[in-house]
Write a structure and sequence with these properties.
The chain has helices spanning 2-14, 37-41, 51-62, 99-114, 117-123, 172-185; strands spanning 66-68, 75-77, 83-86, 91-94, 129-136, 145-152, 160-165. It has 190 residues and is α+β, with helices and mostly antiparallel strands. It has a three-stranded antiparallel sheet with strand order 5-6-7, sandwiched between helices. Strands 1-4 form a two-stranded antiparallel ribbon. A two-stranded antiparallel sheet has the order 2-3. A hairpin with an 8-residue loop joins β5 and β6. It is globular.
């Protein structure tokens, strides 16, 4: 267990999942599980990540290991529409992970998207998607949290979107929300 937990903690930090995102708001400190390496490897255990942490991690996977700091404000315009402030992307670090690992994970994320009806229908608009579903059980007598994280335009990643619905049941609800957000981003009327 100790070796497995140590490896997971290393890669979670390396890939930007278990580090603060440097977003412009106060944020919770993420943490990886400290018990049961096998169960923790599939998302159980005591992992504690925010949607922002997961989104940063997904962006890192999409960008072959480039870990960016997150930001909320893209730009500020004055009353006349002139941009008076523009946020520039900041690279935190480059993850020390092999390209073949990124290729394998991306292949799995694309296969997942291509086997999900809601995403297939969205991709009919000519925009590819790669993604990962998830559910996390917190309380035995309530539905699990629903999760979907993914990115669009797989060959030249453009938008990373992570949806977490507390006690939302199956991940299909999170996928529906992802699709609605992606449609809004691309101004697609459904």
């Amino acid at each position: 267990d100790a070796v497995g937990l140590e490896k997971m903690a290393y890669y979670a930090k390396e890939l930007g999942l278990a580090t603060e995102t440097n977003i412009e708001l106060p944020e919770a400190s993420p943490s990886t599980s400290d018990q049961d390496a096998v169960r923790s490897a599939i998302g159980q255990g005591t992992n504690s990540f925010t949607s922002a942490n997961i989104n940063r991690y997904t962006s890192t996977l999409a960008n072959d290991g480039t870990v960016y700091n997150l930001y909320l404000v893209d730009h500020i315009s004055n009353y006349a529409g002139d941009v008076i402030y523009q946020t520039e992307p900041v690279v935190d670090h480059q993850a020390n992970v092999s390209q073949s690992s990124f290729d394998t994970v991306r292949e799995g994320m694309v296969a997942m998207a291509e086997s999900t009806q809601q995403l297939v229908e969205f991709m009919a608009n000519g925009i590819s998607v790669a993604g990962k579903t998830g559910t996390a059980q917190e309380i035995n007598n309530r539905q699990p949290h629903a999760l979907f994280t993914g990115y669009t335009n797989v060959e030249d990643p453009e938008a990373t979107i992570t949806v977490v619905i507390p006690f939302g049941g199956g991940s299909h609800m999170a996928i529906d929300t992802f699709v609605h957000l992606a449609e809004a981003y691309y101004a697609i009327v459904s």
